[in-house]
């Protein structure tokens, strides 16, 4: 997933470049964020089609899409009137100063869409993620849910890109989850802890950025890595299971790291 999110981020950069190029060449008023959404979603679906034929997210295919997207973006930027001065650095490295009220509205809307879809399709997504073969045997539309997952990933990547930057946005899809899995005793706990870790890192990073005048994206990622280090240490505490519960041994319905894969407790 880390390689996939990085690939989508770099192709979203091409989407930003498409928007800037069209605005310059045709005197349009397109939002670069909108074209980034379109390009990222289309790329996500194309990648999933590649996976369906190759059988896995191969490093070679993802690397080609990643570098290809970035190459197309760089070509379009240099062909745009003003070149690199059009503000593309804000998308490369992230910048809170360039986040407008409209962008905040888009972030809120994307959060509601992604959160709502994940909530509605939680159990099927969980089943498909951990055991696609069994999900197919249970007559779930595996292809549909896999495509939904990559599209949701694309939406999250593009939404965070203007704050985190193309180069660092993938870290926030990986580091908070890695920290959460050090402590969680179930899949539901890992989701909750990942959200808490990401929110803490975002608040801490933005605060550091404001106080010291440093890059917000880099500050947020450093804060997230600090959370991961703390989680590694907390994992060794002898009584942590009294709070989060003890991961149970491997048996049907559970992944190899002890996380529940059947959606948690029966309701």
TrEMBL record:
<protein>
    <submittedName>
        <fullName>Zinc ABC transporter permease</fullName>
    </submittedName>
</protein>
<feature type="transmembrane region" description="Helical">
    <location>
        <begin position="7"/>
        <end position="26"/>
    </location>
</feature>
<feature type="transmembrane region" description="Helical">
    <location>
        <begin position="90"/>
        <end position="118"/>
    </location>
</feature>
<dbReference type="GO" id="GO:0055085">
    <property type="term" value="P:transmembrane transport"/>
</dbReference>
<feature type="transmembrane region" description="Helical">
    <location>
        <begin position="148"/>
        <end position="179"/>
    </location>
</feature>
<feature type="transmembrane region" description="Helical">
    <location>
        <begin position="63"/>
        <end position="84"/>
    </location>
</feature>
<dbReference type="GO" id="GO:0043190">
    <property type="term" value="C:ATP-binding cassette (ABC) transporter complex"/>
</dbReference>
<feature type="transmembrane region" description="Helical">
    <location>
        <begin position="214"/>
        <end position="234"/>
    </location>
</feature>
<dbReference type="InterPro" id="IPR001626">
    <property type="entry name" value="ABC_TroCD"/>
</dbReference>
<feature type="transmembrane region" description="Helical">
    <location>
        <begin position="32"/>
        <end position="51"/>
    </location>
</feature>
<keyword id="KW-0472">Membrane</keyword>
<keyword id="KW-1133">Transmembrane helix</keyword>
<comment type="similarity">
    <text>Belongs to the ABC-3 integral membrane protein family.</text>
</comment>
<dbReference type="Pfam" id="PF00950">
    <property type="entry name" value="ABC-3"/>
</dbReference>
<keyword id="KW-0812">Transmembrane</keyword>
<dbReference type="InterPro" id="IPR037294">
    <property type="entry name" value="ABC_BtuC-like"/>
</dbReference>
């Amino acid at each position: 997933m880390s390689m996939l999110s990085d690939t989508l981020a770099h192709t979203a950069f091409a989407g930003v470049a498409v928007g800037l190029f069209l605005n310059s060449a045709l005197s349009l008023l397109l939002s670069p964020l909108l074209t980034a959404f379109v390009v990222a979603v289309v790329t996500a679906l194309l990648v999933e089609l590649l996976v369906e034929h190759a059988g896995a997210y191969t490093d070679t295919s993802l690397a080609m899409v990643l570098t290809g997207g970035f190459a197309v973006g760089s070509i379009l930027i240099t062909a745009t009137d003003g070149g690199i001065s059009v503000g593309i650095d804000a998308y490369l490295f992230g910048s809170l100063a360039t986040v407008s009220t409209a962008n905040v509205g888009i972030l809120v809307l994307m959060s509601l869409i992604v959160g709502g879809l994940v909530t509605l399709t939680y159990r099927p997504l969980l089943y498909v993620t951990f055991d696609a073969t069994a999900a197919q045997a249970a007559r779930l539309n595996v292809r549909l849910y896999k495509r939904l997952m990559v599209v949701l990933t694309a939406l999250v990547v593009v939404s965070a890109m203007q704050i985190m930057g193309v180069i660092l946005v993938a870290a926030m899809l990986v580091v908070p989850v890695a920290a959460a899995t050090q402590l969680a005793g179930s899949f539901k706990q890992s989701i909750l802890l990942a959200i808490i870790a990401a929110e803490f890192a975002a608040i801490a990073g933005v605060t550091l950025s404001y106080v010291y005048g440093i890059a917000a994206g880099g500050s947020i990622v450093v804060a997230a890595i600090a959370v991961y280090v703390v989680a590694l240490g907390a994992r060794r505490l002898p009584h942590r299971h009294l709070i989060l519960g003890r991961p149970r041994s491997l048996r049907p319905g559970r992944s190899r790291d002890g996380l529940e894969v059947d959606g948690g407790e029966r309701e």
